[in-house]
């Protein structure tokens, strides 16, 4: 190793992160006074990178099993965001799309459905999932969300982190 032998490194110096990537397709539009091209309905091929951290590894030498993220947060993304229309709760399009003539799945948020807000939603889902998966914590520490980055395009993303 580079200057530190394993037995010399105190446990509190070692911190490991893992990142799981999820992809989903969704449409949205910005309202609430926003003027610009994103006020028209349009879609994206989103990518969400979820990073989980832990101060130590479990008995299998993992922060956590990737399949646990897939089976919890991944299920929420698939159910609530993938191939859905994401709108502000008061957007008039909600009733039109859900109404008698419409049969389109809509996910509503209480703010403009920006990349930042979508990243925040996924961040909170991940926090909830980790508490459900590890309700008592673990002897080596509880895995926690480090950050969630949502890419709206290949070159545009928003990242939500915890500031504890």
Summary tags:
single chain, 164 residues, alpha/beta, Tetrahydropterin Synthase, Chain A, six-stranded mixed β-sheet, 3 helices, 29% strand, disordered N terminus
Unreliable stretches: 1-9
CATH class: Alpha Beta
Which geometry do the CA atoms define? elongated
Helical amount among residues, as a percent range?
A: 25-40%
- % residues in beta strands: 25-35%
- Spatial separation of the terminal alpha carbons: 31 Å
Described by its quaternary structure, the protein is: single chain
Number of strands: 6
In CATH, the architecture is: 2-Layer Sandwich
CATH topology label: Tetrahydropterin Synthase, Chain A
Structure in words:
By secondary structure, the chain is α/β, with parallel strands linked by helices. It has one domain: Tetrahydropterin Synthase, Chain A (2-Layer Sandwich), CATH 3.30.479. It is built from 3 helices and 6 strands. Strands 4-3-1-2-5-6 form a 6-stranded mixed β-sheet. Strand 3, helix 2 and strand 4 form a beta-alpha-beta unit. Helix 1 packs across helix 3. The N terminus is likely disordered.
Summed up:
The protein is α/β, with parallel strands linked by helices and 164 residues long. It has three helices and six strands; from the N terminus they run ββαβαβαββ.
Give me the secondary-structure topology.
Elements (H helix, E strand, L loop, with lengths): L15 E13 L13 E13 L11 H16 L2 E5 L4 H6 L7 E4 L5 H19 L10 E8 L5 E5 L3
Parallel strand pairs: 1-3, 3-4
Antiparallel strand pairs: 1-2, 2-5, 5-6
């Amino acid at each position: 190793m580079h200057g530190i032998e394993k037995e010399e490194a105190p446990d509190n110096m070692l911190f490991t992160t893992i990142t799981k990537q999820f992809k989903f397709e969704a449409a949205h539009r910005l309202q609430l006074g926003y003027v610009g091209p994103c006020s028209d309905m349009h879609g994206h091929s989103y990518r969400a990178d979820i990073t989980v951290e832990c101060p130590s590894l479990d008995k299998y030498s993992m922060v956590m099993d990737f399949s646990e993220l897939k089976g919890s947060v991944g299920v929420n993304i698939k159910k609530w965001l993938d191939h859905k229309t994401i709108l502000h709760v008061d957007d008039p399009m909600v009733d039109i799309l859900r109404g008698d003539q419409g049969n389109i799945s809509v996910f509503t948020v209480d703010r403009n459905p920006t990349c930042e807000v979508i990243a925040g939603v996924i961040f909170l889902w991940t926090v909830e999932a980790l508490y459900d998966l590890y309700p008592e914590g673990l002897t080596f520490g509880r895995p926690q969300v480090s950050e969630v980055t949502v890419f709206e395009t290949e070159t545009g993303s928003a990242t939500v982190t915890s500031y504890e």
